[in-house]
User: Fold these one by one.
Assistant:
Number 1:
Amino acid sequence: MNQTRSHQLRSLLQSNELEFIMEAHNGISARIVEEVGFRGIWASGLAISAQFGVRDSNEASWTQVVDMLEFMSDVTDIPILLDGDTGYGNFNNMRRLVRKLEQRHIAGVCIEDKQFPKLNSFIEGERQPLADIDEFCGKIMAGKDSQDDDEFSIIARVEALIAGWDLAEALRRAEAYHEAGADGILIHSKLSRPDEILDFAGEWAGRSPLIIVPTTYYSTPVEVYAKAGISLVIWANHMIRAAVAAMLKTGREVLKDSSVANVEDRIASVSDIFTLQGADELTAAQKRYLANGQSTTGAVVLAASRGNALQDLTEDRPKIMIPIGGKSLLRRLVDVFKRQGIHSVCVVAGYKADSINVSGVKICLNKQYEQTGELASLLCARPEFQEDMVISYGDLLFRDYILQDLLTAEGDLVVTVDSATTADYISGSPDYAWCSRPDDRSLFLQEVTLEHIAESRESCTGEPGGRWIGMLRVRGQGMDWINEALDQLKQHENFNRMDIPDLLNYLVAAGKPIRVHYINGHWLDINVLHDIDRAMHFTS
Ligand code: SPV
Ligand code: MG
């Protein structure tokens, strides 16, 4: 059961253990504080002003602070305690602040007994006038009276020690604020040793939860605080300081080097940022809500082999990078995919993979390409499988309508078969496909299924229905069939020699209906030098 955040903060304040909350100053830092495991966030006035580039002197308006809190609250589930400075005005401003904070699911606010506009306690702290005790108590009462949720916390921060007063004054104030209804006391000190807060804790003797901010006395082991009966430690500014240090170092180095090469490895990756932004959730939501509006079809292009028959042309690049009329085969393939709304293209590369520089594709490496076949390559692309995808050889050229028809064809697994078994545009040895019916043009859109597929015409009785062009489409149940088959076949000792036809035959034998979509011509595969000439004509 998810507890409210105000309840969570109360639990931290009231727990018997020493608890810790960490500063955050915007949405992403709040996400990080939660991500690393803290159970609460200190929305620091110093850090929020700093990230706006202004001073911690109420230069940012309270509504700007509340707007920032909304971003922080939206992206986290742990409680946020706002450093509410002096409450941004008198009791009336405090009432409105509390209501606005509750509307944004902020768990509590801490107000300090100084005067508006406040100045950070570490800047001439002893010269800062304190609030009138009665006036401050009225502010606490007004805040408590205006909260809707009983567990929303109002913490009173005592600045007496910062402003140069003695322990007695600090205790007098703390007691008055406690009486006025404060849910806890934050006792602040700017000494480098914890002596005065420990003296205070001793005298306070657990009258209400005690909170400290060990920014200056940071070297004290935290066991000391636990022993003194302190409830909550606030690490008040360490995320903004860490960010500023990293930005200064990175910025200076990039400027000096006129390059980002040195810093790349030690800064967050773009995908780390996407993760913190929750990009995966949006992708899942798009699938759910944009099912008809946005294509989620992807493509896997098998292109790990060299294409030996093309001799020198593939000396320094794989076959898919051979230019045809100024554009590589792969570029042409990706362009057709994009024109049909397929924008997620994964290329399984092997031979000279480094030379593949086509934008808009994700490369998956089959490092074993010399010892393995097409199924091993397909397995490499598995992390990139989409729920609906086209699997294609990389050396294909075809007219757009062939892909378009494949995408609209019925069936969860569909193969494109050219019903001509021999034709002058057929080069190499595309596999023969035996089908439940021959291509009778009048059968357009009627159900034809694959019965067998093989390189040699003699491997099956009867007339083949045509040649499989090297492209298939998988979706729905078909994805489960393919995944299950891959899991089974990869156990097989011959797996490394298996190609896509072995997978298709396996599925046929398992009784899975593989639909055939017949075409007649308008495609080429590139195998030998002569095909390059034909490809030039095909594309011109
Ligand atoms: C803050 O984090 O803004 C604080 C704590 O108020 S301190 O800077 O120590 O005053
Ligand atoms: Mg502050």
Note: The pocket of sulfopyruvate (ligand 1) is lined by residues 44-46, 56, 83, 120-121, 213, 215, 236-237 (CB under 6 Å).
Number 2:
Amino acid sequence: MPRQRLGQHFLIKGSVLERIAAAACPTRADLVVEIGPGRGALTEKLLKRAARVIAIELDPYLAEHLRRRFAAEPRLEVVQADVLATDLAQWGRAAVAGNLPYYITSPILEKTLRLDVPRAVFLMQKEVAERVVAVPGTSAYGFLSAHTALFADARLLFAVRPAAFHPPPKVDSAAVLLEPRRHPLEIGDGEAFLRFIGQCFSHKRKTIRNNLAAIYGKETIDAWPEAGLRAEQISLDRFAEMYRRLS
Ligand code: SAM
């Protein structure tokens, strides 16, 4: 992929870098996996707070730059690879952090949410961050919010203006903290449950009746108290109740 398409907007504002590193490692961490280290601005901050950092960078020129820049730092391992093709569990339980390449924010989230991590802190497009943390009944709430909530408690930490990057992106950004759900949902096959939620959201403006009747039968769905609601009004716990009725 050409380099300009790799989402290379480098953070230049020290205070933002500090805040991301502090959120990823609130106390000294054994290990942090960094996604998309670029030229190493966040890597440097993470190395101050973690015993070891694994940095996964797709661009071979940047990976080489990092190896040279941190040649005297044995606590850093630079992995030149596509994060989406990398087994992130191979180093054991680790915090995950990154100023993400925005073009693959969703697949990175999908992957990280399924990992056993103490926490993950990501900088992403603000509009996506708002969808990640959104609650039912708000316009930002959708499949991404419910998907995230199944695995994690998500919090928007702070917004970041384009001027904090070089070159500046066209959009505002925000940092999001993901921590494992405090009260895991008892739902059996989580992936099947997510497919059900996807069906509920298949046409966001339509009611549950209109989205589900053709799949599960009109009579079944008409009997549900949620039949006339839209998915964007329904919490994850309520989706779980609906899903359990089907099995
Ligand atoms: N962390 C750096 C910073 O804040 O200055 C750079 C962040 S930049 C937004 C995203 C980085 O992710 C770039 O260095 C880009 O080359 C890298 N990248 C893009 N796609 C990637 C992929 N599939 N796997 C790993 N890194 C990727």
Note: The chain has two domains: 10-180, 190-246.
